[in-house]
Amino acid sequence: MEEEAGVRRWIVDITRWRPSPDQFDAAAALLPSHERPAVARFVKEDDRKRALVSRLLQYSLVHHVLRIPLHQINICRTPEGKPYLQKNCSAFPNFNFNTSHQGDYVGIASEPICLVGLDIVSISKPQGETTTEFISNFSSYLTDHEWNCIVRAGTSCEVLTEFYRYWCLKEAFVKAMGAGVGFRLGSGFSDLLKASHRALYRYLATPVNRPSRDQRQVTESLSVGLHRLEFHHEHWTDISIHIDGEVTKKWGFWLFKLDEMHLASIAKGHPEDAVSSYKKALSTVSVTEEQLNSALESPEEAFTLWTVEQLTESME
User: Fold this and answer.
1) For residue range 296-314, what is the model confidence (pLDDT) as tens digits?
2) Where is the 4'-phosphopantetheinyl transferase N-terminal domain (predicted)?
């Protein structure tokens, strides 16, 4: 199926790329000079690869979709770390993208109208504790309904996978709004969770004008934590979010199984729900009901698998 204008879902398996030092440096040289220190600061090779591939995906995607010459692409970041395109394209005034990386995969998703959030999780077995002990560390971020669904999922492996499904969706949601981007490569899962939660509270400390009832619900629910955001689904399709018990119609969610050990989720929603710092980067937050419904009802296609070689060739 032909890709919808401005909509992309790309992913790279970094385990397939084993560059020599010269090959790595050549790929990094394709980035603007100000981006390279953010890659070089990591000590571990896999962390450097994730950081580099994440940035290659961003520049390649913008170049591919918007036809902007590479030397004219200016990607900035909000105070929370959310990347956005400076001087957006008039054809897609709200063009935005989100990246994620964990385990073997680095991915990017873009949308021309809706906010988009992407989260990738690696289903890692806990070390030094049982699955129940591990997920209990995060119980305060889950509703009673979500917790019951997780602990009743079956075997310990099934319980762990169910937990990661819910967390993956919550992360995609807050990342789409620009609030939950506290991730630092190499940090542990609990550090990611804490950083995301700190970002939410920084967001809530900033006065914003949110006149609609749905917008007030989003803000007020985040003020006391992720446990007031509750996901419902039918066998992990037709996924919806409930805020304080009421379903929100302005968002859509999709969950993907990348392989036996990795999941990815996509969140799409109304631009007016962006945090204040990210909202300034958007050309408009006014979207008609018809535009929103069309975007949310569009079927989600599978991710397109790219190699690093393909990315670098597209940028040369």
Assistant:
1) 999 898 999 999 999 999 9
2) 16-112
Asked if 102 contacts 12 with a C-beta cutoff of 8 angstroms, the reply is: no
Distance of CA 298 to the CA centre of its chain: 19
3 state SS for the chain: CCCCCCCEEEEEEHHHCCCCHHHHHHHHCCCCHHHHHHHHCCCCHHHHHHHHHHHHHHHHHHHHHHCCCHHHCCEEECCCCCEEECCCCCCCCCCEEEEEEECCEEEEEEECCCEEEEEEEECCCCCCCCHHHHHHCCHHHCCHHHHHHHHCCCCHHHHHHHHHHHHHHHHHHHHHHCCCCCCCCCCCHHHHHHHHHHHHHHHHCCCCCCCCHHHHHHHHHHHCCHHHEEEEEECCEEEEEEECCEECCCEEEEEEEEECCEEEEEEEECHHHCCHHHHCCCCCCCCCHHHHHHHHHCCCCCCEEECHHHHHHHHC
- Reference 147, options 138, 157, 156, 155; nearest CA is 138
**Measured between alpha carbons, how far is 149 from 188 in angstroms, rounded to an integer?**
25
Residue 147: is its pLDDT beyond 60?
yes
Question: Cβ–Cβ contacts within 10 Å for residue 56, how many?
Answer: 25
Give me the amino acid identity at 9: R
Length of the chain equals 316
Which pLDDT does position 104 carry in this prediction? 96
pLDDT band at 3 (very low <50, low <70, confident <90, very high): low
The amino acid that residue 120 corresponds to is I
